[in-house]
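Bench notes, bay 3.
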Amino acid sequence: MLIPTYHQFPHSSSIWWLAYQVAIAGMAILTRLNSLQ
């Protein structure tokens, strides 16, 4: 299952797109952990 916006990026930039998604997920997790504290 791919996010539709993925097709807006060149294939060569797919790694950067994945890294961007991981960064967003990481920030969301950190924010959630900080809110628990």
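Next record in the batch:
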Amino acid sequence: MKKLFIILSLFIITLYPLKSFAEEAPIINFGTIILGLGDLASFNNYSGELFENYKNDFNFNQGLSLDAQFIVFKGFAVGGTLNFKYFEYETLLPSFFTATTYQSTAKNFIIGVGPSLFYYYQLKDLIPFLGFQFLYSLKNVKFLENGTESEMVKYNLNLYTYSAIIGLSYMLTKYLAFYCSYSYNRQMSKMTNVKVYGSAPDEMFFYFHDNKDKEIWGDINSLNIGVKIFIN
């Protein structure tokens, strides 16, 4: 108990200089530039046809989510978002028409860009915000034969995401803030540029070609944390 009290006391003491900075937090006004590094960690809940085989997950971001906004009127900001992400994993690629599965390595590269509109309201060191965002992402997917670099399947996914976001920023210093947010995301996916190579079974060829250019929708509910920088 004594150790816990000492730790809490030290933590509170370290917050005093942060508090003094926060009291000088920038006023959300015309000309303020807001830079963000988002989705450092997130919890995601998936639903809809697009995410039939997805599991709810908690993850640390495997890429970069950058945004920049400009206050055009007190509290109202316009801007944009730029995302990069790369990840790979081992998976069992189903044959879709039989019980057979194929051990494979999936490689994914995603780049996304889109506009945003936000409203910020300052309460000293607390800044709640509400926003809307559209993001177009291009996802390049490759499935490789197990233990080789030979491609079985390759395609692009065009992702269109419409998001409503609500969150709260806490000013750690005069310019730096930590934030947490909730977002509801409505996403549409369309598969294009499908290539199925000779090493893939015939049923896999028919599956991917039958589903190319098909629009599939799904929903994502997300809790996110990140940081923002306010410059005025």
